[in-house]
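Researcher: Checking consistency across runs. Here is NACHT domain-containing protein again:
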Amino acid sequence: MTLSLIQFVALHNIASQDKTQLYSAGFHGILAVLEAIGPTGPNIPNVLSNLKSGFGALAGTTDDAPGNRAWVWAFKTLSCAASEVLRAERIKAPLSAKKDEAVQQFLSAAVQFDGAELESLTLLNPSLSTLFNKARAALGPMILKATTGMDLEVTTLDERFSRALRTGSNRTLCEDPEYFRTLEDGLTGLAGESARRDGHWARHAHWISHQFTDAPTFSPDEDEIIPLESVYLPSRCFWHDTIKIEDEDGEEKWQTYAHVADLHKTAVDWLSCDAQHDPLCVVTGGPGSGKSSFARAFAHEVIQGGTFRVLFIQLQHMTLSGSLHDDIVRYVDRRDTATGKHGSPGIAGNPFDWRKTDEKPVLMIFDGLDELSTKEEDGERNARELLLALKLLLSPLNADGTPIRAMVLGRNLACQGAMETANIPLNTMLNIAPIAEMTSATCSMSSKNVKEVKDPDSLMALDQRAEYWRKWATLKWFDRLC
């Protein structure tokens, strides 16, 4: 079932001055997107605020009907999607002198919504709608004209724009939930219960991504405004594997090897494994090693991939009562909010029940194990209880139904002891490496065992400190200019 955008937008019934105002707000909104993109990336909250104020004069008038709200949703979604794609291009190449003209031409081509249709799933997955086809065709020429770059990466441009449309719709609906309630309730109601659940997952996904793309990095004095995404460096990791080998005398012995790899790639590889045999991954590191930063970055990465449902659990807000299943259900229900402008840290429903009829596998990320206790002995006990409970929870769930996996982040010693107690193989524990150059000692191997450290991609020699501080210096310098 579909609903016509002419019926919703009814541009033919809007007074000419209001129609001009709509397009004027649109032009300045997209221009704000372009001009907000610097080394820190696009300032999306400011962009949405600009667009919202641009359309504000229509709010509360006789013309502020579902049709106008549909138009506002479509344009905000388009603006956010364009900014997501432009961000990478803008960082690679400065703006050109023709950026205003480029925006005008893009807007004229892209905002031709008359006669298009909003289908029941359009809000949840706008990339499947023909509504944005003209924008797809106009996006490449705008990038080439608005920036001085030459390489559009055409082979991935359409995929990136589709992904950005989904993100843009989530962001738009979460930013002003009351304004779009009429559209969301109407269209989601047509699609049924599964669409309603998709909406709750989307709201949670937007909250997760916001922690990485928009929320400021940790700042004790709360002065920092730079988002984590702008300074994040993909981490390296190492893990140990003990196997039986034959020595020079033909005697069997156990040999421990350390493996060094990119943490994100290793985690992605784990997601591709059989959840029945390898449902649990533990990421460890000391205080300040970047565990939480990786958790947010990886969760955002998985969400962008679109293959998994991601449930992000901040353990400092959850009480372990002895039944992890019930604890998780209570946690997501208690933390759910339908009006949070950055999405919802919870979910309005039982994710374990939902997965029974859902084709997408679930990834649960448990962050903040360190924060459950300040005492070392309590830390190991908490880790032991959580990992053992997860092992017992995941095993029967993965025996029947959609796969479900869990990633836990905590401190090395506490997690190692807990894994041994729970009989979880230590080769599933990924240790976050420091950003300085790595040695065999970094991998908890003596200097005599250099040959037992496997580094196929030669990552150990990398010293990421200079790149990290260069990013900070660039961002601080740019902020002063602004």
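Researcher: Does this match what you'd expect to see?
Model: One thing to look at in this run: The CA atoms of residues 234 and 264 lie 7 Å apart.
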